[in-house]
Design brief:
Blueprint: H1 2-21, H2 27-31, E1 38-41, E2 52-58, E3 65-71, H3 82-90, E4 94-99, H4 107-124, E5 136-146, H5 148-160, E6 166-170, E7 186-191, H6 203-209, E8 216-221, H7 245-259, H8 267-271, H9 276-279, E9 282-288
The structure holds 4-ethoxy-4-oxobutanoic acid.
């Protein structure tokens, strides 16, 4: 009897420790770097659709990771989005960020680059000598992009939803963009004070054009500029005016975990009640589960 009691107490203690270690994710926790170590490389088989790329990956994750491909915007290069590679890989994803063939490429060329980038990630999953050989889940892909690259991510999703599981355009740019054919869950990140892709002409109507039957979210950062989801780089003209990497980073991780990996633990992060503090960072939030 005493032995049994001891066992029970041990079991209960262990369950307590386990639940502390695997606490439910929150906007706050997903805004920090994840637990995987991040490695990256740029020596990749070339593609006609883009000029160069870097693949970030979770170096100490065994297998079964999804892929995320990301395009920069007009005049931008990989460096402008590099933090996404670090952040998303630390949460378990293979992340390929491209340089477009020219920094002036239009959104359709950026969509083509993203679809080619998906092929590259899948290819790295089977290429002899690839650091991520045997580790990629071919069907767990997502597209992302900034500005014209966000327009590109939406165009890619509109034409190729069968190839992906989710789309995350940020401060997307495409005049008269109609994305009613997108069939995957789509998270639109926007900046209230975006003067380059004004939300009234870009992100908001883009979001409104999405089909009624897909999960979707529009998160508009209060007072945010065109670069709220960019890296902080030398070029002052391409920098975020407010630090919301933790918030947009958390939303993207939760979006990928729920819709790419199918992990229901992340649903409450997206659709539950947010603290007043987090809510106050957004000027507009629309969520359709
Ligand atoms: O990719 C973007 O930042 C869109 C910028 C833009 O206004 O392009 C107009 C030519």
């Amino acid at each position: 009897m005493r032995k049994l009691r001891h066992l029970l107490i041990t079991a209960i203690t262990f369950m307590g420790l386990a639940s502390a270690a695997f606490a439910q994710p929150t906007l706050e926790s997903l805004g920090k770097r994840g637990s995987y170590q991040v490695a990256y490389y740029s020596q990749l088989p070339p593609k006609d659709e883009y000029a160069a790329a870097t693949l970030y990956f979770p170096a100490n994750r065994g297998t079964d990771f999804g892929g995320v491909v990301i395009s920069p915007g007009y005049t931008e290069v990989q460096e402008n989005l590099a933090w996404w590679g670090q952040h998303l890989a630390s949460w378990g994803y293979a992340v390929l960020i491209v340089d477009t063939n020219t920094t002036q490429d239009n959104p359709q060329l950026r969509a083509d680059a993203l679809m080619a980038a998906i092929e590259t990630v899948r290819g790295e999953g089977v290429r002899a000598g690839s650091p991520i050989r045997g580790k990629i889940l071919d069907n767990n892909m997502a597209v992302m992009g900034h500005s014209m690259g966000g327009g590109g991510a939406l165009l890619a999703a509109n034409a190729h939803s069968d190839q992906i599981k989710a789309a995350i355009p940020f401060t997307p740019w495409l005049p008269n963009g109609d994305f009613s054919e997108v069939a995957v869950p789509t998270l639109v990140l926007a900046g209230e004070d975006d003067q380059i892709a004004k939300v009234a002409e870009h992100a908001w109507p883009h979001y409104q054009s999405l089909a009624d039957d897909i999960p979707r979210m529009y998160a508009e950062v209060a007072d945010g500029n065109h670069f709220i989801a960019n890296s902080v780089t030398e070029n002052e003209g391409l920098r975020p005016n407010i630090d919301v990497q933790d918030l947009v980073g958390a939303l993207a991780v939760a979006w990928l975990k729920l819709y790419v990996d199918g992990d229901e633990d992340y649903r409450a992060v997206l659709y539950g009640e947010w603290s007043a503090e987090q809510s106050a960072r957004l000027s507009r939030l629309e969520r359709v589960e």
